[in-house]
Amino acid sequence: MKLTSELSVRAIKHGIFITRYTTKTSLVRNIQRKEGNCPCFRTDDREYCEGGCEWEDDCKNCLIAAWKR
């Protein structure tokens, strides 16, 4: 998954180190942590998600763990 420049700039402003191996998933979770939110992007924690997150569309289209189906 290619990182957008907007996401990269936002991460850099938060002091998050980015390498060529950084995934969008890990970057979004790090941004969520830095902004004081639960790092729930594409995790099982999204079951408790209240919605309204700016990454909601990317997150909700992911597979759900088999034990939660």
Task: Describe this protein's structure.
The chain is mostly helical and 69 residues long. The protein has one domain (5-68). The protein is built from 3 helices and no strands. Helix 1 (5-13) runs parallel beside helix 2 (24-34). The protein is globular. The model has no long low-confidence stretch (mean pLDDT 79).
- Quote the average pLDDT: 79
Q: Can you summarize the main beta sheet?
A: none
User: What structural class results from the helix and strand content?
Assistant: mainly alpha
- Strand proportion: under 5%
Distance between the terminal alpha carbons, to the nearest Å?
26 Å
Choose one word for the global shape. globular
Q: Domains counted in the coordinates: how many?
A: 1
Which regions are unreliable across 5 or more consecutive residues at pLDDT < 50?
none
Q: Radius of gyration from the CA trace?
A: 13 Å
Number of helices: 3
Helical residues, percent: 25-40%
